[in-house]
Structures are given as C-alpha cells and as structure tokens.
Amino acid sequence: MADLVRRLLRTPQGAVGLALVALVLVIALAGPALAPYSPEALSPLRRYRPPGPEFWLGTDQLGRDILSRLLAGARATVLLAMLATVLGTLAGALIGTTSAYLGGRIDEAVMRTVDAVMALPSLLLALLIVSVLGRGAENAVLAIAVAFTPGMARITRSVALAVRRQDYVSAAIARGEGTAYIVLREMLPNVIAPIVVEMSIRVAFAVMLFATLSFLGLGAQPPASEWGLMVSEARRFMHLSPWMILWPALAIALVAIGFNLLGDGLRDALNPRT
Questions:
Q1: Between the CA of residue 52 and those of 59, 67, 73, what are the distances in Å?
Q2: Which of 19, 115, 154, 271 has its CA 20 to 30 A from that of 200?
Q3: Does domain 2-35+54-269 have CATH number 1.10.760.10?
C-alpha cells in the first residue's frame, strides 16, 4: 500500500487528485461539525448577502449560510455517490467474472443482455429507474448503481477472460472447487486493479449524475443541502446573487476533477509496465 501511494505521488495528476479527494473526504465526513452555522437555519433578514467576513460564501434566498450548506451537503453528494459506485462496481464485477468463467452460451446470453442495457445512456436509465421507484436519495443511489453495473460487467469480463486461462484457475478446477469459490477466491482478486481504476473514475460520473437527478427533482428533496439541489434552487435567483449557483457548481466540478485525476494516477501506478 505504501509503495502504491509513493508511485501515485510521483505523477502530477496522481498527487493533485489524491490531495483533492482527501480534502473532499475530510469535508464529507466532518462537514457538519465544521459548519459555522446550522445549514437549515432560516433568516429572512439576511437574504442574498454577498460573500464577506460574516458569511464567507454569502447567503441564499432564505438567509441560510451557503458555506454551511456546502459543508453539510458534501456528505449527501459525495458519500452517496461513492456508495452507488461501490454497489454498481461489485454487481458488475460479479456478473462479468462469473460470465467469463462459465463461458459458452451463458457468457453469450449475459453479454448480449449487458450490451442491450448499455445501449441506454446512464442518465436516461437512471431517470427511468427513479421514475419507477419514486423520488428520493435512496432510490437515486440504487438507480446510479444499476446504471453503472453493465459497464463494469463488460470491463471486468474483458480482464477476467485472460485470468480464466491462468494455471491457478485450472488447478482450482482440477481440485473440484465450486464456481463460487473460483470466482470469488481465484479470479476476482486478480482483476481488482483495473476495477479500482475504473471505480475511481466512475465516482466522478456518479457525483455529477446524482447532482443531475437532484437538480431535476428526482434525487435529494428540500430542505436537503445536496449540491445539485442547491444549484436547482439557486437558478431562479441568479440575477440577485450569482454566488448562490457558483459555489455548489464549483464544488461539483472540483470533486469530478479530483476523482478523474486520481483515476489517471492510479492507472499509471498500477500499470506493471511503468
């Protein structure tokens, strides 16, 4: 692990990405405790305050401190996006590895089904699932996880096909081990590197997708301080206080950039040729 971190820090994108992601995770975990004000405290007399010494990032249309809402909303936006990515990655990895191991007609049927689902854009598929399940952050997480599963299954299968031909898999088959043992104990640990890289990149897409669902009113619901919902609420007041939409949009962009850079750095650090 220490060697991986050293290789990661040798690349500019890895160092910057790791720093941004570490900062985001600290804010997501400790954000509510760091907030100077209550994120839900209403104060009509302090509406539309510009950034200043009292309110560093200004206030919104209800007099709520934008900095406090950003710090509190990081937990909903980032952690839920990471949870959706982990769920989608685990499901896709299991499907792809199992399909590669079984092969034959089962592999063909699974992959054609995956291709059919991948024909739908992730956002459209997530919108369809949320429309069926109903609005809410929990349903948005499930929708994003389902939308990410086919892509992760396809990527995992491409790596697992090469692992399937290795001697240790053949030895496990010769010993009479079951499918579950071979998939979980022999194959999955050896396809983890590309899965980790892809997962770190997909967190950025999950953050933007979760924010998009909240922006459309299908994810987090008021009075939550989720960043996409903050952008949705602020768009009607851009002419009065443009900073209301600037700060949450900038936060979403920085998180997406951080995870993308971290993914690029992990790809280089985990590449045996380098």
A1: 10, 11, 21
A2: 115
A3: no
